[in-house]
Specification:
Strand content: 25-35%
Strand order of the largest sheet: 2-1-3-4-9-8-7-5-6
Distance between the termini: 11 Å
Radius of gyration: 15 Å
Largest sheet: 9 strands, mixed
Order of helices and strands: EHEHEEHEEEEEH
Amino acid sequence: MKKQLVLVIDFGGQYNQLIARRVREHNVYCEIVPYTYSTEKIKAKHPNAIIFTGGPNSVNDPGAPSVDKEVLELGVPVLGICYGHQLITKVLNGEVKSAEVREYGKTEVEFDKNCTIFNDVDNSVCWMSHTYQVSKLPEGFKVAAGTNECPIAAMANEEKKIYGVQFHPEVQHTVFGKQILSNFLFKVCKLKGDW
């Protein structure tokens, strides 16, 4: 029997292996592939969910790592983390700009608990590491979390099951990180945890 698959698309961030480990800790099989992986290859893997990782680049740089818009139109739930959050925004015609105040380290975040990935998540400390941030949401998205310096610390299009978070739920410093990933895997993606 074919196992359910989460595809982690690697944009060169430092926590990419950790993201995969956190997914596997929920008994969900996942594979890491580079951002250069073609849309056809992604489709051929029939993923049940896709996670875009962080990365050191700015999505506004010429030639910055990207994906085809088609990846976001596969009908597969997507979670973008840090660079991945900004990339979703850019690909879907939102705006990303240089942050007036760079957030690095433990940061207090306020969550919209009505957003599926933040069910049972209290306002708490998350780990931030960014110099750019989302300044205008793509069409169809709503703000799902914010900080004093980053009003769009998370966004959601619940209908299309596409989410972005500026912080890092995979690291221990993010108090409810495990719950956020669990909500994405089980409440959004309806995975079985069969691995």
